[in-house]
TrEMBL record:
The keyword Cell cycle does not apply. The chain crosses the membrane at residues 40-63, 84-105, 184-202, 266-287, 299-322. It is found in: Cell membrane. It comes from Deinococcus phoenicis. Residues 1-12 have a biased composition (Pro residues). Residues 1-20 are annotated as: Disordered. SMART domains: AAA. PROSITE patterns: ABC_TM1F, ABC_TRANSPORTER_1, ABC_TRANSPORTER_2. This is ABC transporter ATP-binding protein. The lineage of its organism: Bacteria, Thermotogati, Deinococcota, Deinococci, Deinococcales. Residues 42-327 form the ABC transmembrane type-1 domain.
């Protein structure tokens, strides 16, 4: 945001990046999601096959209708004609009935598969560690969750049934072609290998380009997601043109990729249309000569032409299905890339039970590094249950990293972190995190009501318990001042509330959770004095009887902490009370005096 780069050409895919697996066996994994609806799928498949079989009868009856009309000129016996028309109407009615049943049943199966796949994918994403989300853009993940899952819907429902139906139609139509006129059949079938070869060659290119389209759309979505979520920063830097240009580049890249796919699909469709109808023209010419020679009746020629059209239409339909499979393989590769992702925070094979924790936390020669960058170095200290510990130090000292190790947002890369004397990796993640409460500087509220956000701490809480938590957090008064009270909708990320109000809702949420270990990460640094006083009073209530880690840059807020740990460059350099650290004359005293002078200067400017 500090500079405004000139528009760049669309980014190309990193050739060194791992390629997504496009094994056709992925389709079998997709079909596993259709298993709960397999009975409906089988019924839909049967309806499709019956409808396809009935369509094979239509050309034969139509040919008989032609012969009954034109080969008996002057006859008054309309019985054969009447019976043939009635049979045709019956065939059309049955075909329409089974076609409607097929459409409904398979659409229901497809919708169910998409819903189950999206739930499975989203549920799996929630199990992944913060490291994964640091390495992946939100827009790309949501694109896979929506667009890519939608792409595979046709394959898991209609495409498979259509594949079976078109297979039946092709086999049946070819058989009836040969029975109607063997010589014309040879002429017609000679073009099929050429059509299939065209479909395979161009289809491979369509498959590659379809994956490129999906990647480009995901990149554009990621740009939009970042700009929208950070719209205040964008507008404060008047960087709207920059973000518009960045998103525009992504849209243009996806547009160009879509055009490339459209050209390939048009080439395939045009080529096969010419081959199909060109072959029919030759068949019509040669069949007309046979009718003139008396070797074939007009009705048989019409029947043959309709079967030939069915063969051509079936081959074209199979080509379309082939294209759908190619697109689905690209999309399923992106989906299963996420489903196959494994968290770098493994669950223990036999987790140690953790009921109501005492809250004793021990860092035993703990080190941590992200990639090649060391963040913590040989940190050792113990916090007894119920003690309040303040963590101070310059920016980048490792304070937030240290507290993020307690709920296992990250795992230590050296040493051992213990809760109640046991390595945190011995506990189930859910059990460990149930004992830890977090109130960060930037409070995230969800786009529901105030009550929903407080109850997030304990979904089964009663309305009375929610209100009690709000009262303890000094939030009840401002909540009841809203016309809708606890039913007030807070807006996306809580934008309808002030910073102090959001913090008090977050504190009420943590109170309702009732954790044994509490982490306060700059919980009051962004508030005005009045809001800070209300929030600090709520925090004092929240900290009672809990092991608490307080991170604060404003050292005046931690003077009364029972213990202060001073960090610098990933190490604990000082440990003591405020008075002892001031008397020692080390880093803490330097930080305190520097901040004290700044506060005095700020007050003097106000005067």
């Amino acid at each position: 945001m500090l500079s405004r780069p000139s528009p760049r050409p669309p980014a190309t895919r990193d050739p060194t990046a791992p390629r997504v697996n496009r094994d056709p066996r992925q389709l079998a994994r997709l079909l596993a999601f259709a298993r709960p609806s397999r009975h409906l799928f089988v019924l839909g498949l049967l309806a499709t096959l019956v409808s396809s079989g009935l369509n094979l009868v239509f050309p034969l009856l139509f040919g008989r209708l032609i012969d009954a009309s034109f080969l008996k000129v002057g006859s008054t016996d309309t019985g054969p004609l009447d019976r043939t028309v009635l049979a045709l109407l019956g065939i059309f009615a049955l075909s329409a009935l089974f076609g409607a049943a097929q459409s409904y049943l398979l659409s229901r199966v497809g919708a169910g598969v998409v819903a189950d796949l999206r739930r499975a994918l989203f549920g799996h994403l929630l199990t992944l560690s913060p490291r994964f989300f640091a390495d992946h853009k939100t827009g790309d993940l949501t694109s896979r969750l929506t667009a890519d899952v939608g792409t595979v819907q046709t394959v898991t429902s209609t495409a498979l049934a259509q594949l079976a139906a078109q297979g039946v139609s092709l086999i049946g139509a070819v058989t009836l072609l040969v029975l109607t006129s063997p010589r014309l059949s040879l002429l017609t079938l000679a073009v099929i290998p050429l059509v299939v070869g065209t479909a395979v060659v161009i289809g491979r290119q369509i498959r590659r380009v379809s994956r490129e389209v999906q990647d480009r759309v995901a990149e554009a979505n990621a740009s939009a997601e970042e700009a929208i979520s950070g719209v205040r920063v964008v507008q404060s830097f008047t960087a709207e043109p920059v973000e518009e240009a960045r998103y525009g580049r992504g849209v243009i890249a996806s547009f160009l990729a879509a055009l490339k796919r459209a050209r390939l699909q048009a080439l395939m469709g045009g080529t096969m249309s010419f081959l199909t109808f060109g072959a029919l023209a030759v068949v019509l010419w040669y069949g007309g000569r046979q009718v003139m020679a008396g070797d074939l009746t007009p009705g048989n020629l019409v029947t043959f032409l309709i079967y030939a059209l069915q063969v051509g239409g079936t081959v074209a339909a199979l080509t379309g299905i082939f294209n759908q499979f190619q697109e689905a393989l690209g999309a399923s590769g992106r989906i299963f890339e996420l489903l196959d992702e494994r968290s770098d925070l493994p669950e223990p094979a036999a987790p140690t039970p953790l009921g109501r924790a005492q809250g004793r936390v021990t860092f035993d020669h703990v080190s941590f590094q992200y990639g090649d960058v060391p963040t913590l170095r040989d940190v050792s200290f113990e916090v007894p249950a119920g003690q309040v510990v303040a963590l101070v130090g310059p920016s980048g000292a490792g304070k937030t990293t240290l507290v993020n190790l307690i709920p296992r947002f990250w795992d230590v890369t050296g040493g051992t972190l213990r809760v109640d004397g046991r390595d945190v990796r011995d506990y189930a993640l859910a059990d460990l995190r149930a004992q830890v409460g977090l109130v960060p500087q930037e409070t995230l509220l969800f786009s529901g009501t105030v009550e929903d956000n407080i109850r997030y701490g304990r979904p089964g809480a009663s309305p009375g318990e929610v209100e009690a938590a709000a009262r303890a957090a000094n939030a009840h008064a401002f909540i009841t001042a809203f016309p809708e009270g606890y039913a007030t909708v807070v807006g996306e990320r809580g934008v309808k509330l002030s910073g102090g109000q959001r913090q008090r809702v977050a504190i009420a949420r943590a109170l309702l959770k009732d954790p044994r270990i509490l982490i306060l990460d700059e919980a009051t640094s962004a508030l005005d004095n009045e809001s800070e006083a209300l929030v600090q009073a709520a925090l004092d209530t929240l900290m009672q009887g809990r092991t608490t880690f307080v991170i604060a840059h404003r050292l005046s807020t931690v003077r009364n902490a029972g213990r202060i740990l001073v960090m610098d460059a990933g190490e604990i350099v000082e440990d003591g009370t405020h008075e002892a650290l001031i008397a020692a004359g080390g880093l803490y005293r330097d930080l305190y005096e520097r901040q004290f002078r700044k506060e005095q200067e700020a007050r003097a400017e106000l005067v």
